[in-house]
Amino acid sequence: MQLHPPREIRCGSRSVFRSHAPAKRTPGYAGRNTMNSISRFTDLDALRTRWAIYWDTVMVPHYRRYWMLWVALLAGIVGFNANFTLAINVSESLPDHVYLVVKGETVPKRGEYVAFRWAGGGGYPAGLSFVKQVRGLPGDRVEITDRNFFVNGEFVGLAKERSKKGQPLALGPAGIIPPGHFYAYAPHKDSLDSRYAITGWVSMANVSGRAIPIF
Predict the structure, then answer these.
(1) Mind giving me the DSSP string for 108-124?
(2) Last residue of a domain, which of 20, 49, 81?
(3) Is 208 found in the same domain as 145?
(4) 53-106 pLDDT, tens per residue?
(5) Which domain holds residue 76?
(6) pTM > 0.70
(7) Nearest Cα to 178, choosing from 159, 194, 157?
(8) How far is CA 48 from the centre of its chain?
(9) Same domain, yes or no: 93 and 139
């Protein structure tokens, strides 16, 4: 490689010489990088060794001593999931927010809370779990007067004309509730229940279980 002589650069009344020689690296620079890499690998190996010792001396004896308890706990979890589930109500439509759903109890009774699969629409995906109270059963009469809803003459809510986003809300059905359906109710004025056509009378085939309020 050809080296050129340093050039003089005038900077005011001072002269500055610039050299074309390659910059010198600080001695030991590459060595420090290598040592850092070795240190990281050493720390990882030490961590693996400590974990192996902890597993052999603590975890293995623990599982050998309490394996029956762990099996019972696992069986309890599996059994719980087979018969129960939790439903979370994130809105203010109901007084409680967490419900224990008893699977298999799919024949709703008047006044009970039930969980059912949403048919879709209103910004909610089909299959989402809804919790409502049963206020009307097959054979009950639903009447509407000036958007006020009555089940067997009992007032169950006023239907709003528009949603919070300003969209028009169609009224739910009136008349005799047919077999296999029920009137879904919630006390909140903004509840998406059977007052509105998007919910309507809920099919009992979509009921997943009885919902028990927890808190």
Answers:
(1) --TT-EEEEE--SBTTB
(2) 81
(3) yes
(4) 888 888 788 778 887 776 777 777 777 677 889 888 888 889 898 999 999 878
(5) 30-81
(6) no
(7) 194
(8) 35
(9) yes
